[in-house]
Amino acid sequence: MNRSSWSYPVSGWVVAALLSGAVLAQPGGPVAAQPTPVRADAPLPAELRYVPADAALFLHADAHALWTGELAKSFRTANKDLFDRAENAGKAFGGSPKDLKAVALFVPKIKGPGDDERLGIVLTFDKPLDKDKFTTAVKGLFPDDAKVKVLTPSDTLAVVLVGLGVEYAKPQPAGADGPLTAAIRAASSGKHMLVAGATLANLSDELQKDDLPAQLRPLQPILKAEAITATVTLGATLDLAVRVRTKREALAGDAEKALALLVRLIADECDRTISNAEKEAGMKDVVTVFKAGLAATKGAKLSVDGTEARLSASLPLGDLPLAPAYRAVGTRVTAAPSPKSANNLKQIGLAMHAYHDANNSFPAAAICDKKGKPLLSWRVAVLPYLEQADVYEQFKLDEPWDSEHNKKLLANMPSTYALPGSKPGSTETHYRAFVGNGAAFDWAKGHKILDISDGASNTLMVATAAHGVPWTKPDELEFDPQKDMSALITLVGGRAQMVMCDGSIRTLKKLPSKETLNALITKDGNEIIGNDF
């Protein structure tokens, strides 16, 4: 499938990864480099002692290097105000970002509903903390602070547990071994800006099943591996290395092929991103940076060593115009119209994904009766995930939206569903989903994100409809692939806004063609999307 889009988070994620370190990696730079040697019996830094060696996800960041390094200085020049605000925000936590030494984050497992919201964060500081101020500030970040435990075993160490039991409140047994031992030891070397890893067996079982969407099946050797570990190392170049540890030597070759396919897919998508960026005014520096990232992606080295498949890539920083490119992207985002509507769509996307996490699927387009008759909109179903559980509990879910009881609740419409500029007291919403004929939603059945084989970032979730409807009414946009659906969508602030199934917000200067829009609406049509998106 050739889906073209001008979206920095999606199309250029590898470039962004090489520039910001938002990837998984294992020690090393180019493929010939060897892991930084660390004695197995060497004591771990304080923040790493709490990380389970079989955690589903693990990330370690050299916070000091990220905040004070040359790369940070470049971005500080581009956006001094952002860094100044971060400095001021740090005061509420009893310190400053520059006092933060290192951060380790871990998620023990992601097997059932809510598991991805249970995590541990361990921070070390160069200077003593104001423990009371830090505890108060951290708890204020979470809606349910009762689920948050903040421990300060020393003046320079803080352990934050979100939804986790007391067994995570103390260091792991010394010498504990597991799939992430290599990643944890790499982090302890102090040589890498970022180190991360994943224990595949502790991720969702669906990732290791054989009935994956067609697009993901070639990646099965990676998804069925024991562990993925990685590092990002910063110097004159930014070096990325990834290692996939398989269960047997015979499987490592398959994992290498899967990594090679992933590299090709990323390179193709990045190439299309550059093509689209070249059509935009003021994107010259962005194009330069992305081209360098594309070259690094195409130059990635692959190899097999025993049970491991390895990938490495290196991006020479040199004279790359990082700060101007950052400013250009920031200006483009800042110039986007109707930030209130975009935020509404963002909150809807987050609520949809929270629903998916709790129920293992997105909601159906409607809450239906036993015969499949739509009673209430999906907008009612996701209320608990918009911090509107009290409103949700007032509905009679076995009655239609306009029953004597439910109709009274129209007045309780959350502000998230109100289009900016609507009349005060209006109970109509313009945020509606496309339904049926292969769209992301069906009336009576909710789909899993893995059902979206066209890619969640390329499939429309909710659009800003031309006509408003009572917000509780199950009245959505019926998808007809034979018709032009653009007439059903309105412009907000002169732009078309929509939220995609991955939760990203898209703002377009004009509505795309019939063919492109229809391709975006389908979840598994395998269509080619035109350059007008």
TrEMBL record:
InterPro entries: DUF1559
Leader sequence segment: 1-25
Secreted keyword on record: no
Keywords recorded for this protein, A-Z: Signal
Annotated DUF1559 domain residues: 341-420
Keyword presence, Signal: yes
Superkingdom assignment: Bacteria
Official protein name in the record: DUF1559 domain-containing protein
